[in-house]
Specification:
Elements lengths: L1 H28 L5 E5 L6 H17 L3 E5 L6 H9 L6 E6 L1 H4 L1 H4 L9 E9 L3 E6 L7 H10 L5 E4 L5 H13 L4 E4 L3 H9 L5 E5 L4 H5 L3 E6 L26 E7 L4 H14 L3 H10 L2 E5 L1 H21 L7
Parallel strand pairs: 1-2, 1-3, 6-7, 6-8
Antiparallel strand pairs: 3-10, 4-10, 4-11, 5-8, 5-9
Helix pairs in contact: 2-10, 2-11
Length: 326
């Protein structure tokens, strides 16, 4: 009996070693050829420039080129779909923002399942966003704006970057909490959103802060609140919506992801390369130029964040009755 048990134990150990050896071997050899990164952006866009910066930095530790392929088809959903269906071999990655995981699937039908894409790493925070009024507006604080809106239902209008965008959802979170009646007007881009405010077509705007830095510094625009979960270095005295008691944060992060089934050891090697890349002086300089904050989450931490954010934003969009295309 002891002999049989001994033989069983030896066979079990052998099977474990046989199972582990290929994974270990793959991780040690990987990568042996260039890696394709499908980027959810047109060339020259903020996401594209961010992905080129991190992949250039990763090349130094991986010893292989990371080739950028831009695909903004379906407003970025095509890139997610391609990644979800790609071979999980570590040579097909997705470069995009967390919006494709936590916002977009709740707003329209998408040709991918977020569970079929696994995070490699989250490594940067997109530029701060906030709520502006014109420099000559009577409201000095966000509280004053809200009070006026409550006392004058239906009178105010605001511009935002599109139905369901973080700019739109942030204001609607305030709308629901305060019971305000005001009208949101969607625009195609943040510059157009700001132009509508400067031109007097709306009373306030929910938009990117740094995209209106010049107008802010010149006093043409006044920032009343930051919609991200952290204060903006450009105006550290301005509170966030969360600090004002609204519980909403418009944080969007840059990330790399891979098809489900990519070997954990390969994911970890890629993640380590991202982490090392965030320390690269050229990458740091690029993020400063793009106004992106540098931070890091590995595969497990990023997955935990994405799962929680997906549920949170989905509930918020449903509760706020944000129109969807589904």
């Amino acid at each position: 009996m002891k002999t049989k048990n001994c033989i069983k134990s030896i066979l079990l150990l052998c099977s474990v070693f046989v199972f582990l050896f290929p994974v270990s071997s793959i991780a040690q050899q990987y990568p042996t050829r260039p890696i394709t990164v499908t980027v959810v952006s047109n060339p020259g866009g903020g996401i594209d420039l961010c992905m080129r910066a991190i992949t250039d930095a990763m090349r130094k530790s991986l010893g292989q080129t990371l080739v950028i392929e831009n695909n903004f088809g379906g407003s970025g959903t095509a890139a997610f779909s391609l990644t979800a269906k790609a071979q999980p071999d570590g040579y097909h990655l997705l470069g995009g923002s967390t919006s494709g995981f936590v916002y977009i699937p709740h707003l329209r039908n998408v040709p991918y399942n977020v569970q079929n894409i696994v995070p490699v790493a989250i490594f940067a925070q997109t530029p701060a966003k906030g709520i502006f009024v014109r420099g000559d507006a009577p409201w000095k604080t966000f509280k004053e704006l809200v009070t006026y809106a409550k006392n004058n239902p239906g009178k105010l209008t605001y511009s935002h970057g599109g139905i369901g965008s973080v700019h739109h959802v942030g204001v609607e979170a305030v709308t629901a909490k305060e019971g305000i009646k005001w009208t949101g007007i969607p625009y195609k881009s943040t510059p157009e959103t700001g132009a509508a405010l400067l031109g007097g077509h709306v009373d306030f705007a929910s938009a990117g802060i740094y995209e209106h830095e010049d107008q802010f510094r010149a006093g043409k625009l006044r920032l009343l609140a930051v919609t991200d979960g952290y204060r903006c270095a450009l105006a550290p005295e301005v509170p966030t919506l969360k600090e004002l008691g609204y519980g909403y944060t418009a944080d969007i992060y840059m990330m790399l992801a891979a098809p489900k089934g990519t070997p954990p050891a390969v994911l970890q090697k890629l993640s380590d390369a991202v982490k090392e890349g965030t320390k690269d002086p050229q990458f740091i300089k690029a993020m400063e130029n793009l106004r992106n904050g540098i931070m890091f989450m590995g595969p497990q931490e990023a997955r935990k964040y994405l799962d929680a954010a997906y549920v949170e934003k989905g509930k918020l969009i449903k509760d706020l009755k944000i129109p969807t295309e589904k």
